[in-house]
Amino acid sequence: MDVMVLNGDGIGPEIMNAAIKIINKLHENFGLNINPVEYDIGAVTLDNGKWDLDHILDEARKYKAILKAPMGDPKLRNTGGTEKALDVILSLRFNLDLYANVRPVRLLPGVESPLKSYNNPDSINYTIIRENSEGLYSSHFGGLVLRDELAIDNQTITRKGTERISRFAFELAKKTKGSPKDGKKSVVCVDKSNVLRSFAFFRKIFSEVSSRYDEIVAKYMYADAMAQHMIIRPDELNVIVTENMFGDVLSDLGAATVGGLGFAYSGNISDNMGMFEPVHGSAPDIAGRNIANPTAMIMSTSMMLDWLGFGKFSKIIEDSLFNAIRSGVRTPDMGGNATTSYFTESILKNM
Predict the structure, then answer these.
(1) Which residues belong to any copy of the Isopropylmalate dehydrogenase-like domain (predicted)?
(2) What is the pLDDT of residues 284-297, one digit of tens each?
(3) Looking at domain 1-98+270-351, which of 3.10.270.10, 3.30.70.20, 3.40.50.1400, 3.40.718.10 is its CATH number?
């Protein structure tokens, strides 16, 4: 099976190289039939005209799965001030209808949490489901700035979009082991329905969908209250579902509780296609220095393989990664001195 590989910008090619080496090792040792097809797509090649959005989308539609490295360069911006890299990222999400952004918040073995009460593996283990195709971010390709005096962006919430993201969240909860605290399966609707009608509409539709899942507990929480809950009692959480921008902010907060963005991986999923990527940025300040932490890229690769039905290969990746971390192999952001290359080779040896 061919998989589209987007090498991105900054540290993107370095950490993607780690992921491809692992895929190739799985093929060599265990017969995994995945062929990474690499593309030099990123903010730089979009800016210099080598790629345009239509061409990128035409290529992407040829594949069932996309493995994407971080993209972006803060210096490369559109006339309106937005980052060019987001044109690629949001265009893929919106035009390919990758409506479910799945962001696990999981404390991995060998990684320390800044929350002093949570330092056992999987003592924090929940998933944020972020609606990916509408919400406030759907205004990225629109919006209005009038006479340098007024700026307007609109939030869009539809019945179709909210129904399917709510169903996705409940179906995911059915497959989980529940919250780390008590094993109860639940989905929390996160919104600001006390302030905005669009969020009240989101909550109403979520409630309607929840009535079809008697075995899953439906809960409700305002976004600011959830931010506090994620710090104080993350072990009570199982699945969270929310609008696009709230999901973006809360998932980055969640990443901070499990070691940082270097451990934050994700999938953007539709009914028949998926794009998998680390949550963190392209970190141009450390690009080319061989010190980037490839864990999120590697876990995104594992997530992709599991989604494609190659669960046994996903487990091999995770076991090999966790054993490397437990043995003391750590990149500088983890408090060690391992290079990206050495970190990767340590994982390969465990395979």
Answers:
(1) 2-347
(2) 999 999 999 999 99
(3) 3.40.718.10
